[in-house]
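Work Package 3 (structural annotation) set out to generate three-dimensional models for the target panel prioritized at the project kickoff. During this period the team completed the workflow that converts sequence records into discrete structure tokens, so that structures can be stored uniformly alongside our sequence database. As a representative example, we reproduce one entry of 137 residues exactly as it appears in the project archive.
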Amino acid sequence: MMTLTTSSIADFLMDNYYPCSTWNKDFITKWYQWYHHYQLSEVIVDAKNEILAIAFARPVKNPEDGLEEYSFDPMGECLFVDMVVVKDQRAKLQLLEAIFSKMGDKQVIAFKRYKYSDDIRRYSFKKFMRKFIKGNK
């Protein structure tokens, strides 16, 4: 059985999330630790403790507020998704449910469209959930 550590999470991200493939492992570890410290990360593992999926998401007041790295508003009505990596598609719905049960209902879900752009995609939270669940049955 694999032991889940910040080092194993950094390794997973380096192997499965393209931007991390060129980053320093210490930076990735600190990046994860920040999200974990504020309970803004979710990791799904299997019975052997192998990582199946991981996400970083922050509540913010408005979608545009998500562009400011490391900022969040616990009372914010928007869930800004910074990163999602799903290695096993069966874990996708479990990851989404874990994030939303932790963060609660929000009005809007948003994410940055491209790494080097400020183009933000935003969706009604309820509409996103209906479409996502319908597409993963």
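The beta strands are 41-45, 51-60, 78-86, 108-112, 120-124.
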